[in-house]
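User: I've been trying to design a sequence by hand for this structure and keep getting stuck. Would you show me what you'd pick, starting by listing the structure so we're on the same page?

Assistant: Good idea, let's start from the same input. This is the structure you sent:
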């Protein structure tokens, strides 16, 4: 009955309008009920889907405009076009989306070496991640006015890209990993330097969420045995989250969330804590997740041409990867959450291909990551 009730709710969401980030004229959306699949639908990443998903990063990783720089000017000398400021990661509307667009290509090539656009993706990766372009990125981050650029969301994705390259058994990966290394080491050190100064975590559903970035940075630190980074992350995770209780999941989502503050904290702490400690922590933080009938409704999107409202498709994907990760790590206690993860995937996945630029430059990455966590 759970899914039928959602269809009833979705049927009331008709002809919503809003303005996108780019001040585009929005139009009435389709009835959301027409996009709802059955709750039993299971989506897995196939070669056919990989071929389709590859079109999203290919469309934007070397597309310089439109571009949202987030750039601080110290003087007129700091003015520059996106590619001159960021010679490696200048596409996909913003820096972090360019980084994880490159991550998407690496992940797809690693999982599907025979993907249709394999040669094109390999060529683009070779053009983007060169010693010279990475030196330009390092120079930018060492500049006086942009030392904290993309803290911490973009930092997390950069380390995720480095981890993906490290675990890809391919000669190209060794070349790219070596080229990226100066920026990787700089970003890892920025985490180490920054975390002791951060007195309170950022608990939002958007880019600056602390738990999200620490989870990705933890994966990198473990994979590459960066003990200094591991220690910095673990200490701050315990400081920030160990005593948290009764996370107000019913307050979520906010209207432009693409991360769940409660779920992202779970995703980090399941990495940091041992089983006994984690299960005890979950009993105080989100005890309802152990209930076999636990439910949280998919986030409904009112207008996919609105760059903020379409964030909620991203929320469905990020919720899915947290639920998959939890169910896989602790199947006895949380295996029942897998079906809920599939529901979230099934709502938003059909809207990826053919999407306009407001979501196409980043949502494919979220879908690929969620599908990989199954």
């Amino acid at each position: 009955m759970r899914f039928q009730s959602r269809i009833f709710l979705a049927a009331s969401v008709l002809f919503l309008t809003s303005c996108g980030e780019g001040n585009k004229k929005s139009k009435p959306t389709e009835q959301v009920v027409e996009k709802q699949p059955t709750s039993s639908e299971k989506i897995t990443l196939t070669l056919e889907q990989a071929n389709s998903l590859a079109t999203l990063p290919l469309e934007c990783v070397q597309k310089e405009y439109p571009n949202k720089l987030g750039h601080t000017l110290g003087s007129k000398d700091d003015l520059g076009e996106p590619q001159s400021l960021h010679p490696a990661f200048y596409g996909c509307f913003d820096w972090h989306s360019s980084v994880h667009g490159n991550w998407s290509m690496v992940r797809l090539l690693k999982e599907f070496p025979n993907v249709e656009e394999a040669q094109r993706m390999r060529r683009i990766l070779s053009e983007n991640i060169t010693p010279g372009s990475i030196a330009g990125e390092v120079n930018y981050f060492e500049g006086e006015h942009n030392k904290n650029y993309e803290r911490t969301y973009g930092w997390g994705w950069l380390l995720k890209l480095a981890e993906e390259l490290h675990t890809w058994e391919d000669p190209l990966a060794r070349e790219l990993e070596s080229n990226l290394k100066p920026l990787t080491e700089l970003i890892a050190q920025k985490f180490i330097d920054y975390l002791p100064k951060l007195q309170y975590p950022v608990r939002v559903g958007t880019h600056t969420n602390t738990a999200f970035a620490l989870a990705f940075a933890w994966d990198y630190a473990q994979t590459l045995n960066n003990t200094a980074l591991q220690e910095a992350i673990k200490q701050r995770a315990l400081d920030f989250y160990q005593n948290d209780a009764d996370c107000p999941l019913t307050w979520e989502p906010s209207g432009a969330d693409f991360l769940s503050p409660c779920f992202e904290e779970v995703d980090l702490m399941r990495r940091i804590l041992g089983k006994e400690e984690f299960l005890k922590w979950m009993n105080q933080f989100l005890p309802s997740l152990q209930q076999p009938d636990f439910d949280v409704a998919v986030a409904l999107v009112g207008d996919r041409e609105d760059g903020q409202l379409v964030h909620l498709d991203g929320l469905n994907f990020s919720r899915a990867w947290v639920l998959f990760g939890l169910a896989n790590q602790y199947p006895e206690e949380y295996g029942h959450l897998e079906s809920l993860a599939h529901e979230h995937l099934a709502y938003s996945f059909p809207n990826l291909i053919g999407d306009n630029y407001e979501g196409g430059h980043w949502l494919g990455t979220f879908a690929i990551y969620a599908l990989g966590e199954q």
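That's my pick for every position. To get oriented when you compare it with your attempt: The longest helix spans residues 171-194. Confidence is low (pLDDT under 50) at residues 1-38.
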